[in-house]
Each structure stands twice: as C-alpha cells, then as structure tokens.
Amino acid sequence: MKKHLPFTVAILLSLAVHTANSQDYHVRIGFIGNSITYGATLTDPKTESYPAQLGQMLQEKYGDTCILANFGISSRTMLKHGDVPIWNDVEFRNAWKFAPEILLICLGTNDSKPQNWDLYGHEYYDDYQSMIDTFRIRNPHVKFLVCHPCPAYRVVWGIRDSVITHGVLPAIDSILEYSGATKVDFYTPMIDSVALFPDFIHPNYRGSGALARIVYHTMMDSDLVHKADTGLTFVTGLDTDTKALAFGDSATLTWTTVNADSAFLDGQPVPVSGSFKVSPAETRVFMLKAKGIKGVDSMRIEQTVYHPALTRLMISPRAKNVHEGDTVNLKVTFIDQMSKPILDQGYTIFWSVSEGDGTLMNETANMADFVAGKAGKAVVEAAVDTLYVKSTLTILPPETGIDPVAKSQDLNVFPNPAGDLLYIELERNGSSALQVQLFNLAGTRVKEENLSLPVEGVQTVAIRIKDLESGTYLYKIDYAGRLFTGKVVVQK
After folding, report:
1. Total domains, the chain
2. What does the H/E/C string look like for 5-49?
3. Tens digits of per-residue pLDDT, 42-78?
4. pLDDT score at 339
C-alpha cells in the first residue's frame, strides 16, 4: 500500500520562499577543478580565485545574467583511481545538483603525480569522458569549457610538467574532439609566467587575474553566454537536516529549484523552494518534482529511520576536582547506536562508589550527587544492565575562603564521538554570553557560535555540526571570563 506524506505537519512558510520566474534570462556557470580553481594560497579565494575574478568581468559585461559557482577543491584528481579523486567529494555532487548550463573543467595537475599517472594514466581519457557524460545526463544542453592546465614550473608535491605536457594535454585534446567543447588554454600563454606562481604551482592574485582574462576572452570569442540553452527547469537541491532519524523524531527537508513554476513533494503541491517537516515511521524515499515552461525535473532523497537502542553510557560530573565535604552532581547520558543522546530514557541506573571515599545521594533516573569523603581518588560507576561507565574524581583537602559561586562554573561537552549535534552543559551564573569555536587539526576555524543563555542555573545548549566532516576537532569555549578547551571526534 502506498503511504502518503503526512501533511498534518505544517509547511515552514516562515522561511522566505523564492519563486523562480521561468522567463528570467540567467546562465548558470560552474567550475570543477583543483586547488588552482579553488584559489588556494590566495588571501581570499572567494574574491581572488580566477572564477571569482571572471565573475567580476562577466558582471561588468552582462550585469546579473551570469550566476557562477566554484566547486574547485584542493588536491583533487580527474582519475577515479587517483589518490584524491574529485568524484568522491561533496563538491562534485553539489556541481551535479547545480545543473550548470556552462561547465568549466580544469583537472590534470594532480593527476601527473607518480602515484596517479604512473599507475592509472591510461584511464585519464575514459574518466574525463565519463565526467562529460555525467553532466550531459544531468543537463543534455550543457556547454563545456575544457582546460589545458597551467604549467608546473618545478616538480613540487610530485606534480610533473613533463607528464602534463606529454600525457595530460594530448588526452585533453582528444576529449575536446570527442565532446565538441570549447578549449581554454592555460598552458601556452602562461609558459613564461613563473613570476605569477610563487610556489611554482599556484597562481598569485595577478596570476589568477591572468587566468580569468583567458577564460573571459575565450567566452567572448565563442559568444558562449548567448549560446547557452537557458530556462530549463531543474531541482537543484533536496536535503535533510538529519541523515539518520530516530523513530518518533522529525526531520526537515529543504529543496531548491530553478525555472520552476510549480513543485510537488510526493505528489503534494509545495513552494518551488522551501522546507517541510516529516516524521516517517520507517526509512522511506521522498521525491520532489518541479515543473516549468521548458521541462520537468525530479530528485529523490532517502530519509533513514532507525529505532534507538542503548549502546553506551556517558557520565558527566560537574567537576573533576572536588574538596572534602563538597557535593558534585553526576549526570549520565544514554547514547544510541548512532552516537546520539536518547531523550526518552526509561532506564534504571545502578550507582556505586567502586574506589575511594564518598557517598551517593539523591539518585534519580539519570543523576546522582556525590559527597566527597577523604582526600584521594574516587571512582563512581553507573550501570544499566551489562553497560557501565566510570567517572574518576580527585578529592582535595578542604579549602577555605573560596567563593562557592565561582566553583560552579564548570562545563561538560558531550557526546564524544558526536554526530549531528554537540551538546554543552554548563551553569549560568550572571553572564549570559557564550562563545563556542571549533577548529580542525590544521588550526583553521570551521565553526563559531555566539549564544545567549536564557535562564539562570544548569542548562544544555546544542551546537549543530552536521555540516562538519568526520574527524577530530578542537573546541574553545569562552564563558564568564573563563576559557575551556578540548577535543571532540565527529563521526558521521
């Protein structure tokens, strides 16, 4: 039996909804490439990369006619068997969703490395042809700009100009013949321009400007903007904010379209771009269909639904160091198989002090108070059936003259590993401003949240991290003049 989308949940009409006018003349231009296309080593790649500088030139020529999107990403190869193939990257999927009417492809520099070309160079032409075909399936009318990559002025990171010259360029010439694409030559005009490439591979700002002018003049000579077949209808995005949805919870689907006059989610009319909350009882596929004057397009997304099962426990003490006679609150978080907290708990915890001196009091469904005894190490255990977790506390000798309010400003970050959400538990004492920053291991800040704690007392705030890739991150939390740092592992 076919199950229909439950429309008892409300469409999020509070979001600004953009209805595309299918009569507007816009040309979507996409760029697929490596670090040179991305703009690595530039101060501001978003404004200084050659696609960005080209965009400024096209705006002066055509106004807002051209819509550019840069999907370049460092180290990527055209070779599917390369060390870092672009095929596996989210930017490649985003480029496909973008459904460009003009697509510039500039890949081959990293393919020249020994671990890539020496083993798989014979596959370069076929992989390039496969990329052309992939985007033609997405948009049969897409126009291609295929690039001869820049020279490599020295062997750096294994990139070899000899391979580019005798392997990559001939293969691209064959691709040009196969595809009927327009050739963009970055190689010949830049052969004597080493001064524009400080590290012998990546162009500086002036070098990027030179590449932008090469593309610009190529487009002007071929009148490519006016040859683009525009106005076709596409679904350019259909996503969920929760990849793995716990049974009984809800997820928000969001979508975008271009040149659409109407859209339908599982057959029900919805805005052409917008959001919708769903609460499926089981894993299911949602389909968005968009209709316009020049066509129909659709996109599907699978919303995974799972039944939470308790797989581990986390115990979070309000403080790791306590003094004799002090009371510290211990809280247990129940974690399911997707590393997410289980909110509907219903578990019975057995608390015990397995080492050291202290007493447990006020035991509840997931919390207990530990009253510290004599100085030394104390270990508190919490168990549910066969699962258990320990918390080790250091009991210090009694202290005097300490403001008890200042002692309460401790903070817990959980779960670790984390999935889509990272929780921070702390007690507000006066100050409401909370700043949370996350950094990758290279020291680059990848997220910053400035929050305001609404009420006094112990509370938990959630930081959305679903956009972060799996890996280890450093956190820095600034609250009430104190700085908390640590590591958190993100697992998707």
Report:
1. 4
2. CCCCCCECCCCCCCCCCCCCCCEEEEEEECHHHHCCCCCCHHHHC
3. 999 999 999 999 999 999 999 999 999 999 999 999 9
4. 87
**CATH code, domain with 487:** 2.60.40.1930
Instruction: Tell me: do 182 and 274 sit in the same domain.
Output: no
In Å, how far from its chain's centre is CA 465? 8
Among 22-31, 151-160, 347-356, 365-374, the range scoring the smallest mean pLDDT is 22-31
The structure tokens listed for 341 are: 């907290």
In a shared domain, residues 247 and 205: no
Mean pLDDT over all residues of the chain? 88
How many angstroms separate the CA atoms of 460 and 458, rounded? 7
Name the residue range of residue 299's domain.
234-306
Token pair listed for 128: 């390039």
Task: State mean pLDDT over 133-155.
Answer: 97
Q: What angle do CA 454, 455, 456 make, to 5 degrees?
A: 140
**Last residue of a domain, which of 288, 306, 324?**
306
Same domain, residue pair 157 and 65: yes
Whole-prediction pTM:
0.69
Residue 15 lies in a domain: no
Q: What's the CA dihedral at 106, 109, 114, 120 to 10 degrees?
A: 10
Q: Do residues 223 and 252 both lie within one domain?
A: no
Do the Cβ atoms of 266 and 255 come closer than 8 Å? Answer: no
Token pair, residue 19, equals 């209805």
